[in-house]
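seq:
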Amino acid sequence: MAALLLLVYLLPPPPSGKKRAVKMTVREALSHIVRFHKSCRNLQETTSSVHGKQPYILAVGTSRRIINDYYIVVDSHFIPCKAKSSISAFDELFKAHYVFGICYDQALHNMYTFVQTTIYNIDVGLCHESPRVKDLRAKLFN
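struct:
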């Protein structure tokens, strides 16, 4: 999971402009992918403070190092992940975008596009890629 989260640092949110959304820091972008929830608290408390329709991973455990369960949260609904590892939870998160027909979060568009074209080989050459995504893939394969 650390390698996937590193992609957010390598492919940061795009700069904001007049027509784009407010600039988001890398730390805020990371919270759009995965959030931690202590298992002793109520799950509904976590989603009540989140505004937005983008799916994210909710990691539930006694500490950030000891995660017992993963959920994909979409529109405040919990979808339990079958797998018990963080990488499998990200796999389910990525696939949730396709199953529910959800566009990528604007701040994470570069990271998701890289994963889509480089790891899953979906729409390579057909989807719009930023120069940063193309450059990172070229460095990875050369």
